[in-house]
Structures are given as C-alpha cells and as structure tokens.
Amino acid sequence: MSKKKIAVLTSGGDAPGMNAAIRSVVRTAISHGMEVMGVYRGYNGLISNDMKPMQLRDVSDIIHRGGTILYTARSLKFKEPEGLAAAVENCKKNDISGVVVIGGDGSFRGARALSNAGIPCIGLPGTIDNDISCSEYTIGFDTAMNTAMSMVDKLRDTAQSHDRCSVVEVMGRAAGDLALKTGIAVGATYIIVPERQFSLDEVIERMERTRQSGKKHFIIVVAEGIGGVDEIARKIEEATGIESRATVLGHVQRGGSPTVRDRVTASRMGYHAVQLLEQGIGNRVVAVEHGKIVDYDISEALNMKKTFDEELYQVALDISI
Ligand code: F6P
Questions:
Q1: Distance, CA of 121 to CA of 124 (rounded, Å)
Q2: Residue 224 CB less than 6 A away from ligand 1
C-alpha cells in the first residue's frame, strides 16, 4: 500500500515561526509514516503545481529563521472557481490527501473551500497580528511584539534626550493587540487602538497631567488600524508645544528570528495538524485555548468574534500616569 501523502504551504503575510511550523509538519508526518510535499507561494503553488517532496533534512537549520522557506502569497487566482479547480486537480494528481495551511483568516477561507472540494485542510494561525478569533495566540505574535518593543526602546532614548514626544505606529491590521501589549511593555503614555474610542483631547490631557508630575518625554503607541501618526504628532505638538516626531515601524516587525514562544507554539500546532490529517479529519483550524492546543471547524472559527483585552487596557491606563 502506498504511503499517505500530505502537503504544507504558507499563505498571506509571513510571520516569524512559520518555518518552525513547516519543520514540525514535515518531521511529524515522516515520523508517522507519511510523505510530505512543500508547496511554494501559498495557493499559487497548488494552482501551478509548484511543489516538491520534503525530506527530514530539507527542514534542518530553519527553526531559528524568520520568513518562510516555502515563500508566501495572497492568491487572487485561488478565489476564482478555475483556480480552485486547478488546485484540486493538482492535489489529486500528486496523491495529496490533506493540506496544512499556515496563515490567517483569508488563508482559512481558502482552506475551507479546498476542504469542501474534497481535499481535507487544516489551518494553522500564523500572523503577527494575533487577530484569529478562535485562538488566544497566533504564530509570530511574540516575536513581533519583542521586535516592536526593542524598536520603541530605541525611540525612547532619542525622545528622552530631546524632551520630545514619539508617536509610533505598530502593525496589526484591524486589531490592536500588538499595539496594546507593545505599548504596555514600552511604558507608553497612551495607547490608541481601533477597539476603543479615542479622542486626541484625552491623549493631550494625559500628557499635560504627567508633565505636571515631572514627565518630560512621551511615547504614544498607535495601532495601524488607526494610523495617521504624522497628523497625530502634528496636533500634539500644536496643542502642547512639545516637539513631536512620528515613526511607522512597518515591515521590520515581520522579520527576525522567532522567540521561544513562537518556535514552541508552531511546533505544537504543526504536530496537532498532522495528527488530524492522519485521521482523515479536515476543515479545522488549530488554536490555543487556556494554553492547550485544540481545533475548531473552520466556519465556526471564522464566525467567532475576537475579544479585546479590556482589563489589560485598563491596566495600561492606570499605570501610565
Ligand atoms: O497581517 C500581517 C500584516 O503585517 C499586517 O499587520 C499588515 O496590515 C499587513 O500584513 C501588511 O501587509 P503587506 O505585507 O501586504 O503590506
């Protein structure tokens, strides 16, 4: 009897720890007697049949690397019926009986479509945004937070030397979790996130209040979902007379060697995904719940609403005085 064969791909924005997840999928599959294909550039590789068999040593020396050795893409073609049909045909041609898709919500929609078309897929949450509703944690989040923190620490040095205000935009798409946790870690005076109503008057009032107790430099963290850091910095300077500078951290947050947390979570999630495919189970998203690895039906996962950590936001407000 021929061996069961599965495939693995990375899709959407890359995230540190994706390589650790690929490694775990490949090694788990092989140690459980399966074969694995590595698919290049997300769903585009399924459509164009751009894939190759992965052996144990193909994933050596990658656990510590950022990015993804399989490359990634946001495939528009896959959203078309012809793209999906070509992907299904290539899976069948290559005897692929299941696919592990490492990415975000958009990638999971693709995984659902492929599962419904007869190729069982398992989604692994890989994004620096930590915006997957069914999971407490996404691969790449911890590394991105640490990168953002060390960048803002550097900005603090110069803001402190000049008695300035540094207004910093942190990534996260529509989610404010990266901004919130980075903001707390850098001791921001104010954290502006899409999940909370914000008024610039309140930010300025807080700056004035802390100035009265002796504060001379300020860090304002702004989530990407709010944006407009140049405008915010200009208005702060106008209202307070404190010289203000805006910085957009940008894609630096997506790179770098993954932290312990990202490597370990990715390894655990990859292992779980292969176990599901081994049993012929598809159409699931792997998630972290109370620290444990669990899985959800993809539609159920996509319909869940991400909760914002209001309690933590209150902590940030109370201690940034
Ligand atoms: O989803 C990860 C992310 O880095 C978001 O934080 C950001 O909004 C987006 O991707 C940027 O996408 P791109 O790399 O296509 O510019």
A1: 10
A2: yes
